[in-house]
Model the fold of this input.
Amino acid sequence: MLLNALVAFVHHLAAFTLVAALTAQVAVFPDRRVRKIDAVYGASAGALLVIGLVRVFFFDKGVAYYFGSVFFLAKLGLFIAVGLLSIYPTIMFRRLQLSAAQERRVALILRLQLAGVVLILLCAALVAKGAGFRG
Done:
């Protein structure tokens, strides 16, 4: 029970770190500090994915519970979509100079990522309450 709680804690810590880093990216872009924040964002996303999968396969309610939920599948799909969206900004952050159009595109993608994270949080709450099970 204690191990389960500690794994859940680390999972939540990674999730909050991801949200904080993404919010910081939106706040400081196009300042050069965004590169360091992007590294924190990437690390927290990786940790969140690994720890989340460990929870699904080894702790909590089990694989059948999670994969039986349309909201869990939506959450996983949204996580992948947000991750794919993050590729373009990460590449652009490495450049010395961005055009105005590139800056607008990156800013839009960062906002889309935040919207995706809000939907992920909604799906997480629905999964936790047992909603959306195929049966």
The two ends are 29 Å apart (CA to CA). The chain has a mean pLDDT of 95. Residues 100-128 form the longest helix (29 residues).
